[in-house]
Amino acid sequence: MPFGVRIFAVYFLFVGLASWFVLSRVMDEIRPGVRQSTEETLVDTANLLAEILRDQVAAGNLAQSHLPALLEAYGRRRPEATIWGHTKSQVNHRIYVTDANGRVLLDSSGRALGQDYSRWNDVYLTLRGDYGARSTREEPDNPDSSVMYVAAPILDGERIIGVVSVAKPNRTLQPYIERSQRRLAWLGAGLLGLGLMVGALLSWWLGRSLGKLTDYAKAASAGRRVKPPRLPSGELGQLAAAVEQMRNELEGRDYVERYVHTLTHELKSPLAAIHGAAELLDSDMPAVQRQRFVNNIQRETARLQQLSERLLHLAQVEQRQGLEERVGVPLGPLLEELLEAQGARITKARLRVELALEPALQLCGERFLLRQALANLLDNALDFTAPAGLIRFSAERREQRVELRLYNVGEAIPRYALGRLTERFYSLPRPDGGHKSTGLGLNFVQEVAELHGGDLAIDNVEGGVEVRLLLPGA
């Protein structure tokens, strides 16, 4: 089953069940809600009639009053009122009055005059001082024939002298209940249909987008040249970009070849120098010249060792998925330690070093990696700072991070090289002879910064170059 169909099936099941549950509950509440509202109206009507009938009942002349004629005339009225699409052509209230013993004194229907109604709950409860109401079927086997009765006491001071009951058949409410249920059913069906349409479109779009990604991944794994699918921005767009990036990295043969060629070139130069010096050392030569070739071998060997060590460190950092520890590393003592280690070079070049740090600044991360990164930055600055020049460290806290700036007086970096300084094996000639470094130092610093969730930036500033390293603070 396609992924989009499965999503729609789950969506349909969830929305369908939720809609059915809500609609059924609301449908069930319509009937009692309408009847409760009607009962509340009957209570008001009964109490109003109780006040109107009080004097006649107290005087005992209810049957001789004009009220029986009024009730008879009331029963003959034809309202012809259109209520919510239903025409009401007759009145439906039945009104009867009983004395303090429950005997019917007046009945608008004429059926129960003189009968004993004291056993019916509406009269019985009201005569006891309670709220009297009942619902009785006119036809015992027909639930739709039930009639709602609500009574109110007729009071003479504090004494109950009679009861007036108002009745209304529930069948007269049924048209309004059914109309409400029909309207609600149509509205619910419309909303359900709209929801399912939206769900179908969403499922189709999601399935189609994932299908494009699947087809693209299959084509890429098969080695076919295909363009990445065009997807809207968002998670799917990011996923498509990530797949494309992964493919480029996996299939980046040009990059791999360039990497190998550059590495071969870097190794070839010191190996050729060592090989040539070794051949010349086999012949007779003055001691001074022999020492010069020995120094060349030592220097190139150190270069090879430095290259291999930096490659090893870089490979270890690139393979990392996270930090092994996060500890507070005091920045001031760490920089002082690095400057002391480079004290001979600093003294020999007569360099001035300034530290402008906020007190008690601490970095958060792996101390070894942070030390290696700062050591690479300092080593790079020492290479490019002219004799008697200035190197200045400054740092300040920026919210949860620490921004470290390393400034050195020197020539500006060519514009074409600014964007390539962190590439592997890319290096600029040093001012003291034109030789290049391994080209791995700044790349290692960038990897360490990214591993810590930081950033590295290098720019030309007035009088020199400034490196900005952003790292998490402790």
UniProtKB/TrEMBL annotation:
Primary location recorded for the protein, binned into one broad class: membrane
Primary enzyme class: transferase
Subcellular location: Membrane
InterPro entries xref list: HAMP_dom (IPR003660), HATPase_C_sf (IPR036890), HATPase_dom (IPR003594), His_kinase_dom (IPR005467), HisK_dim/P_dom (IPR003661), HisK_dim/P_sf (IPR036097), Sensor-like_sf (IPR029151), TCS_sensor_his_kinase (IPR050428)
Record flagged with keyword Zinc: no
Protein keywords: Kinase, Membrane, Phosphoprotein, Transferase, Transmembrane, Transmembrane helix, Two-component regulatory system
All residue ranges annotated as the Histidine kinase domain in the record: 262-474
Domain HAMP: 204-255
Gene3D superfamilies linked to this entry: 1.10.287.130, 6.10.340.10, Histidine kinase-like ATPase, C-terminal domain, PAS domain
Reactions the enzyme catalyzes: ATP + protein L-histidine = ADP + protein N-phospho-L-histidine
UniProt-listed NCBIfam families: PRK11100.1
Protein's name in the database: histidine kinase
Organism of this sequence: Microbulbifer echini
Upper taxonomic lineage: Bacteria, Pseudomonadati, Pseudomonadota, Gammaproteobacteria, Cellvibrionales
